[in-house]
Amino acid sequence: MTHHGVDDLRTERPRDESSRQHVTCLTKVLIAYVAMMLVDRKMISLDEPLNAFLPDAVRRRDGQVAQVTLRQLLSHTSGIDESFEEWALTKAIDADTEKRRFEEYPQIAEPGEIFVYSDAGTAMVALLIERLLGRSWRKAVNEMLLTPLGITCIPEIADLDEHYGSTIASGHLLDETSDQFQPVPAETPSGLGDTLGEYSTCFTIADTMALAQFALDDGVTRQGKRLLSVDLAQQMRARQVSVPRHHLIHSWGLGWFHFDEKSFGFESAWNGHQNFVQIFPDERVVLVVSANVYPSIVVYYDVLRALNMKPWRESEIMPVDPDLCVGTYLSDGYRLVIAPGHKHLRYQFFQRVTEAEWRQIETGDLVPSQSGGFSGRSGNKILRGSISPIWSGAELRPKFFRFAQRVVRRSD
Questions:
Q1: CB proximity list for 323: less than 8 A, separation 6 or greater
Q2: What's the predicted TM-score (pTM) here?
Q3: Of 218, 201, 195, 238, nearest to 75 (Cα)?
Q4: On the CB side of 83, how many CA atoms lie within 13 Å of its CA?
Q5: 3-state secondary structure 387-398
Q6: How high is the pLDDT of residue 96?
Q7: How far lies 214's CA from each of 75, 217, 218, in Å?
Q8: 383 and 365 in contact (C-beta within 8 Å)?
Q9: Is 160 strand, coil or helix?
Q10: How many angstroms separate the Cα of 388 from the Cα of each of 45, 112, 136, 268, 373?
């Protein structure tokens, strides 16, 4: 285990074994493990609808009731619209208690239809844990997972310095004007903004390694204590749904995702922090890279190359007929309009401001990419990453488009 660089460019505090980072979306794995432990205890089923436990999470705005299962929530195939989080948070929260509410939460796809990455889906799993155990999901994660693994508990307090001391590394973002990394001003999200503990959960490299080792050993701690049955531990890293044309993700399990056919792990990023966990079961190798800069994926690829490991998978390229992609695609938070252009498809990208108002924030070309999808070319570069069509059923026209982890559905 090695440490390089500094925790803060301003103070030049050196990086060492005490340095912590915000783990951001890696908390989804922690919540998934506790949920699977409850399956192990026969308190809940992976494949029975959760309607009896979460009636307020399955009622839809059209009056219908969705039959959502724990397997679908953990594999991000519940169809719940992630972009709702971007503009309608006040509708998903009780202002007095700061508890999540999910009545009339949107679904962009039918349960089990496609992969739709969803913080909201994981928040429903956290709510399920609380209702089954009668205590906060944070306490459940601390008692059932982190303490047995020897990892510092997740705090229930807003003052992270009081909990972790002065060990949390500052995040740094690349400033494109100066081409230099600049420190990100510290901020403390509201209870709503930290519903899943993405900000308040801070791990050292050793902490993340302990979690990864636990996954590699199929539910057994370093001290030899089994916390999860072999079958369920292996199901967590078994492919549940393919994620075609994604630049990093090959498929998703129940908590962990797959980089390729053999290795699994997680990647998470937020506010100048980026974490990579990649586990190679055949070689019994665990690789953890935590950087307090974003983006740092180039460094990660360099580490893989230095270890003679394949830095990325070769995507299965499927031909895309541009004419069939023309149309309007919607979610609660976004609208993507694709039209014919002179040389390439043209797109307009909108974000919802109010119930009735949309604001255009980008326009540009959709340029075919090597993965079989597109990349956006514009001055703002918001959609510069992969923009991939998603098909559903036998229809030749794509029914959805994915950009980053968000999905929009054809509306015309």
A1: 340
A2: 0.93
A3: 238
A4: 23
A5: EEEECCCCCCCC
A6: 55
A7: 20, 5, 6
A8: no
A9: helix
A10: 33, 19, 37, 20, 5
- Dist. CA 106–CA 61, nearest whole Å: 7
User: Residue ranges of the alpha helices (H) in 75-143?
Assistant: 84-87, 119-133, 137-141
pLDDT per residue as tens digits for the range 97-146: 555 566 667 789 999 999 999 888 898 899 899 999 999 999 999 999 99
Low-confidence stretches of the chain (pLDDT < 50) are 315
- The DSSP secondary structure of 164-211, one letter per residue, reads H-TTBPPPEEEETTTTEEEEPPP----TTTTTT-TTT-EE-HHHHHHH
Tokens of 349: 């990208």
Q: Which residues pair with 327 in a beta bridge?
A: 338
Q: How far apart are the first and last CA of the chain?
A: 53
According to DSSP, residue 321 is labeled -
Dist. CA 172–CA 15, nearest whole Å: 14
CA 287 to chain centre: 19
Kindly state the tokens that stand for 33: 């493990």
Q: Are 38 and 45 in contact (CB under 8 A)?
A: no
